[in-house]
C-alpha cells in the first residue's frame, strides 16, 4: 500500500481541524474517566489519538475501547441482541446498521454541546437511546456506536478516518449491496457503514471518498483504553476492491445500458 505523504497528512489534519466533523478544542477541555480529552482527536490523550511521525499519519480510535472487553455495557449488549433474530451475517449487519441510522439523529457538537468538538462513547449514545428513544451525535459518534455494536453482534468492525469525516466499516465478504468493497491490510470484504443520512443503505460509500484518497482505517478489537496508550498496530490506508453485483464501478455503464434499452423499447412501441 502506498505511503501517505506529508501533504496528505497535512490535508487530513486540516480537515480534522476545520471540517464538518472538526476537532478544534474549545476553551474548556473535557478529560473522561480514562483521561481522554473528548474535544480533541489528536495526540495520545485525544479520543482518536491522531498522530504523525516522519510524514506518515496514524490514529487509534481509543474511545471505542471504553465500550469493549471489561468495559462492555449497553452498546455491546445492543449488538448482542441481534444475534438470535438474525443468524445470517449480512442480514444482521443490515439490522444493526438500520438501528443506529434510525435511532441517532445527526446534530453538530456546537449545537448540542456548545463546543466545536465533543465525542461521545458508544454507551453514552446507547443510554440516550434507552432513556429517550433517540440519541444525537455527529460522524464520529455514529462511527463509534456502529463499530461497538457490530462487535457485539459477532462481526468484525473498524473505524475509518477520512478528511473532515469518520465512519465505520464492517467485514462482510460476499456482500452484494455495496457501491465499493474495501480492502484493509490486504484483506478484501470490508463494507462502509455511513449512517449519518436517514435513507443511507449499508454499503454506500459517499462519492467524495470512493477513490480512497487519505482514508485510514483501524480494526476495532479489545485494547487498553487509557490516555497515552500507543496504538497496538498501525492504522492502514484503505484500498478499493470493487463493488457489489449491481452497485460496483460498472454501475454507470449499467445505467447507460438500461437507458438505451428503455429508449429502444419506446421507439419500438411507437413504431
How does this model look, in words?
Helices cover 33% and strands 17% of the residues. The chain is built from seven helices and eleven strands. A hairpin with a 2-residue loop joins strand 7 and strand 8. The radius of gyration is 19 Å and the shape is globular. The N terminus is likely disordered.
What order do the helices and strands come in, and which of them pair?
Elements: H1 6-18, E1 51-53, E2 56-58, H2 74-85, H3 89-103, E3 104-106, H4 109-113, H5 122-132, E4 135-137, H6 139-152, E5 157-162, E6 165-171, E7 181-184, E8 187-193, E9 216-220, E10 236-237, E11 239-240, H7 251-270
Parallel strand pairs: 3-4
Antiparallel strand pairs: 1-2, 5-6, 5-9, 6-8, 7-8, 7-11, 9-10
Helix pairs in contact: 2-5, 2-6, 3-6, 5-6
List keywords for this structure.
globular; about 35% helix; disordered N terminus
Summed up, what is this model?
The protein is an alpha+beta fold. It is built from seven helices and eleven strands.
